[in-house]
Amino acid sequence: MAGGQGRVLELAVLGSLHETPLHGYELRKRLNALLGMFRAFSYGSLYPCLRSLLARGLIAEEQPAPNAIVGGRSKIVYKLTAEGKERLQELLTQAGPSAWEDESFGVHFAFFRHTEAEVRLRILEGRRSRLEERLDAVRTALARTAERLDSYTLELQRHGLESVEREVRWLNELIATERRASAEERPERDTTSTDE
Amino acid sequence: MAGGQGRVLELAVLGSLHETPLHGYELRKRLNALLGMFRAFSYGSLYPCLRSLLARGLIAEEQPAPNAIVGGRSKIVYKLTAEGKERLQELLTQAGPSAWEDESFGVHFAFFRHTEAEVRLRILEGRRSRLEERLDAVRTALARTAERLDSYTLELQRHGLESVEREVRWLNELIATERRASAEERPERDTTSTDE
DNA sequence: GTTAGCATGTAAGGAGTTACATGATTTT
DNA sequence: AAAATCATGTAACTCCTTACATGCTAAC
């Protein structure tokens, strides 16, 4: 119940408001459209988060344009402050487990446009090795107990392994693309020894 | 912090102990090998859960065989009681959102062997329509904003859609298999009108 | 004999949901 | 004028994690 309403949601909010000012209700819709395949936030977490960000000076209420003689005084449109932009950059620079775990990877990836190339690469590689650890653990366990398992359990394992393997291949492609792009930008550096 | 340490973990524990008695440490390893692709439990949730199940009479400490003159008095092996078996059946019979949401579907599926055929079918269909709702929502939102999105966001959406579509296809196959199997078991019933 | 892994547990807290409560505005 | 949807917010609660605390036992 303290102020730190979750780094993931905080990043998602700051990142969205960096593109354009928004009010809470629509912000939630945007987030759930953007991340709908991975997670969904509720108002019960979004509004307290906005309140906390406002109190910390990372966002501010945008004054409605005075030419609009609107009587409708209900929407509260928030925009990013200078401190908010700094905080966003800080969050986007962190390349650690908090960036590549299941709950947070999607959000970090969604704002890769604002992330430095080196950080992007480290996050993608971090996620990949996280998934490979998981594959190793499950495959090892499976090799020891496969014949004792019923068909539903086996099918679940098979499907789970396949999904994670697919994500690893996807990451491989992204990593290769990133490496090619950064090699093009600085062609003076040697790229043959940058593996692993 | 009350007694109800989560229906998902409760189901996972009861289901595992139904196969064979186990002590906490190994139970956790089994669960994380079984469900490692979807989620992982920590000791901090497992031991309180065992304590709660013990207090509710759903599991019991298994007495070590008296022929073993083992001085090793440390492992606490739990086994399912009659009430525990009833509770497990009750949990496995529930075909509702609590069975097909992301956090719980894998656990329910893992114990499908002990689930009635009709319940299995309803859970698979429930999961499928849950995923299809999600696809609709994201696709609609995407159609309205696709040209404004940067390449990373688009790639994330593309990958997310593809993953969910793959799971839907997987579910379609499973549902078809289930229908075929139940048609074989009761050939007197008509199966042509059971489609949506 | 000391590191590594087995084994059990607890207290505090983090991150978010659900359900509730309220009111304005648009659509039918 | 009723129903739907937009819009904001809070309190209580759920479920799980992290970090800590402890001791045993097997391997090197």
UniProtKB/TrEMBL annotation, chains A, B:
Residues 114-148 form a coiled coil. This is DNA-binding transcriptional regulator, PadR family. Residues 13-90 form the Transcription regulator PadR N-terminal domain. It comes from Nonomuraea maritima. Transmembrane segments: none annotated. Pfam families: PadR (PF03551). InterPro entries: Metal_resp_DNA-bind_regulator, Tscrpt_reg_PadR_N, WH-like_DNA-bd_sf, WH_DNA-bd_sf. SUPFAM superfamilies: Winged helix' DNA-binding domain.
